[in-house]
Specification:
By secondary structure, the chain is an alpha+beta fold. It folds into four domains: 124 residues, Beta Polymerase, domain 2; 97 residues; 79 residues, Alpha-Beta Complex (Outer Surface Protein A, domain 3); 185 residues, no CATH class. It has 20 helices and 13 strands. Strands 3-4-2-1-5 form a five-stranded mixed sheet. Helix 3 packs across helix 4, helix 7 runs parallel beside helix 11 and helix 16 runs parallel beside helix 18. The longest helix has 30 residues. The protein is globular, with a radius of gyration of 24 Å. The model has no long low-confidence stretch (mean pLDDT 87).
Length: 551
Amino acid sequence: MILSEEYLQSLLDKAYPQIRSVADCAVVLEGSIAEGFGNSSSDIDFLLIADSDADLPTMPSLLFVDGRRVEIRTRSVRQVAEQFSAVTAAAAGRPGAAPEDLLNRCQRLLRSFPLRNPELVAKVKGLMSFDDFQDTAREWWAHAARQSVRYALVLRQLGEEREAAAWTEAGLLQAVKSWAAGRGEAYLEPKWLPMQLDRIGDHPLCARYRALASLDVSGLDAADYVTEGARLTVDLGVTGAEPEAGRITVARAGAVTTWQTGERVHVVRGQQDVFVLGDRAARAWRSLVFGRTLEQTLATAQVAGVPQAGPLIAQFLRFGLVRAAWKGEGTIVPRMPLAAPSGDVTPPPSTARPVVGIGGAAAGGAEAVDLVPVPARRFSAAAMTLVWSNVLVENAREDLVGALDRGQWSVAQLSARRMLRFSLRGVLSAYAVNPLPPDSEVVRRLSLLPAAADLDEIRASAPSLETLTVACDTEGAAALAALDDFVALVRRATGAHSFPSSFGSSDGWRQTLEIGYDWLRLGAHLNADLPIDEASDLLSSGGAQPHATSV
């Protein structure tokens, strides 16, 4: 740990009067500080464990004690036992099936530091072997890596080499996380990966990963980067994604139908989204024969008068109108754990203005009664994601400031990229793109948005910010200033200029909860997906923190 036990006990003593605690509970420190990774901006994460079978809230309470942000979570012994059982059951079933939030909570508890009632702590930790957990984590990351690299191979064959490189980067991170988990480094949050590799020590695979961690540092072109990434993935112990001709096929997507009126082709997805296709896209769509290999599919499109149809087919894939499959092993389902929720990309509706802002939908005038041009559930889901993206921007900025303070340059660079990508989640959400593209694609997916002066400025600035380097104090200060300016630009463009500093004070956190609660009520009424599971606790508490004492 980077903080003394005496200091942590003092913080706990001061935090206790501010929460409704459970008698005779155990208390542990969990998270990055318990792992030895933290810095001056890291939360102090306390978990209170009640020796009972009660249903305790999932959502944490956030306190500010002695200038530190203190996060309080509660679990009962029954809830802990159910968490461990759920992970074990998921590991015994479909690979990668365990929810990442569940894995994260189990790992944090298993590697936590006891502060009170160590006997009870030992009891709950004894419910799962850490060796078993790290095997589960290793397989979980390996499954994600396999799917990501397979998808990268699909995109490269379709001519989308930059996106293929981005998915290779994601697959490599997942593969090295799998490899590290097999060596006891099972902490899930990827931002601390550089320090996990430091702890593993001088190993040839660590050096190879660092040299290929991103396309920019590799010095390779995008196509060669995918090849080398796939090779390193295998060497890291992840099999099943080796480049082989004929392994990738085009598969039918569920609940997608084709409707033609005259010469115009429409594709209906999920009985609620309609895509209208241009003439060339329609010919490419009509040429598809499901079950054929990708090589055969591209050749057939050529015969149908659509040469170089790869990017069009990639667009069909991106929007979930078709699927890619790995012969003999089913559909390729790429995802990025601990990033934006995966799902089919929905492009923005045909309007040049933001559909939704923090304060509500845009209106055409004082007396306007305008119909929002997206389905109600998507509108509310986009609004909630817009709010959550702004919260994550604030969180990433705190991580960046803390890493700069401690000279943790690799962590700072990852935090800077997160700050950029979270802000771009907000841009896409404001234009009703929901579900969002994966984080590695958000810069390129700005191309989905219409032409407008503020969006053009965002599009022009984002690529250079994605490749910022942070290796010294001067570069760190410049990166922070550039990202602050960029976030201000994004918030002006999306109507979020008045968003509070969520983690700067109790008042800022209260304002954040109030904004989120207003949108959550609408989302719950429409049965829309919540941005995080913990949001349901905010609804249940009427917008208040679940553990805070009444004044």
